[in-house]
Design brief:
Helix content is 54%, strand content 0%. The chain has five helices and no strands.
Length: 84
């Protein structure tokens, strides 16, 4: 897919995130200018519905291991008041 789109894996990943929902905003971290420029170029990557379907199929084959947060982090989340 990278060759077909002329984009790096990072750019395709960010473009995929941007294509999910309008309120999803990727926040990639980087310390290098070349990575920042690469990340910014992801807004120009246009994924078709076929591209999104191919990515979805590939992701659905992956087995997720572990939780999103460890036990201590979950305690903090459970204590957080979300009524603001």
């Amino acid at each position: 897919m990278t060759d077909e789109l002329g984009a790096t894996p990072a750019q395709i990943s960010l473009a995929w995130l941007l294509a999910q929902k309008p309120w999803i905003v990727p926040i990639p971290g980087t310390r290098r200018l070349d990575h920042l420029e690469e990340n910014l170029a992801s807004v120009s990557v246009q994924l078709t519905s076929a591209d999104l379907s191919e990515i979805h199929t590939a992701l659905s084959r992956l087995k997720v291991h572990g939780g999103r947060m460890n036990e201590m982090q979950m305690r903090v989340v459970d204590e957080t008041d979300s009524s603001f």
